[in-house]
Write a structure and sequence with these properties.
Blueprint lengths: L1 H7 L5 H12 L3 E2 H8 L3 H14 L2 E4 L7 E4 L2 H30 L4 E5 L1 H14 L3 E6 L7 H9 L3 E6 L11 E4 L11 E6 L3 E8 L3 E7 L2 H24 L3 H5 L4 H4 L1
Parallel strand pairs: 5-6, 6-7
Antiparallel strand pairs: 1-3, 2-3, 4-10, 5-8, 8-9, 9-10
Helix pairs in contact: 1-2, 2-4, 3-4
Length: 258
């Protein structure tokens, strides 16, 4: 029954809801009578009566005999009480959950899967950018032509490092392309930092498809930003001093072998 289901949403058990509803229809009833009407053991009915009485949802009717007869509280008062309790609970949850959300916002990591989902997230980040974008990617920039143009038009900077030759969508993009002797990679990859506040990192391969991670975690934002800056610094050093300067920098690690 719909009324019983709705009453349960406000914290009443099914039996408590049935008992209240029965008393509403048949006031001045006792536990034994209610038990027969709703086909429920008397012990369970008595427990429900005690609970409803303690909540003020039913009243005990004075009687000359030893039986305890009850009547339901006025439905208007019941609904008002339920609304009040509901609003208090909702306000409490709103305040407490908001505290948790604020505390965890910068620690949040969102895993993304699928090219369309990742491209949509990139566009969302670009649309929210106010000052600077740092990118290291081989994804076609034409996919973000409108978003990048909007950043540049409001005085923002778009700084790009890549091992790929990009067809730039706008001459105002500050591009550093290290393309000499580099074999084009068919797999997509991306590292993008926005306003030093958020970062998205992603890559694709034949096994896993296009996957990525988005976060506002300050540590990851700084690491990604430093990585892109260091790529640009090394590119400029190589341009100035020649490729041989690399030999003095290497420290013989597995990463360098890759």
């Amino acid at each position: 029954m719909k009324i019983i289901e709705e009453l349960q949403k406000f914290g009443l058990t099914k039996i408590e809801a049935q008992v209240y509803y029965e008393l509403l229809k048949n006031p001045d009833s006792n536990g034994s009578q209610i038990s027969k009407k709703i086909d429920t053991p008397r012990t369970s009915v008595y427990m429900a009566l005690e609970k409803l009485y303690s909540l003020g949802f039913i009243y005990l009717i004075p009687s000359l005999n030893e039986r305890k007869n009850y009547m339901a509280a006025d439905p208007d008062k019941l609904v008002m009480k339920l609304k009040s309790e509901y609003m208090r609970s909702a306000e409490f949850l709103e305040n407490e959950l908001l505290k948790i959300h604020i505390r965890s916002d910068n620690e949040q990591f969102i895993n993304l899967r699928g090219e369309e989902n990742i491209l949509d997230k990139i566009k969302e980040i670009l649309n929210n950018t106010e000052k600077e974008i740092y990118m290291n990617t081989n994804i076609n920039l034409m996919l973000f032509e409108t978003e990048l143009e909007n950043i540049l038009n409001k005085g923002g900077r778009v700084i790009l490092f890549s091992f790929e030759k990009h067809k730039l969508t706008d001459s105002r993009i500050e591009a550093y392309n290290k393309t000499e002797n580099y074999i084009s990679d068919p797999n997509k990859r991306l590292m993008l930092v926005s306003d030093m506040k958020e970062v998205i990192i992603g890559s694709s391969d034949a096994t896993h498809g296009f996957t990525g991670t988005y976060t506002k975690n300050p540590l990851l934002v700084n690491i990604a930003a430093e990585h892109i800056h260091n790529d640009i610094y090394l590119y400029k050093l190589e341009t100035k001093f020649g490729k041989d300067f690399w030999n003095d920098l290497k420290i013989s690690t597995l990463n360098e072998e890759k």
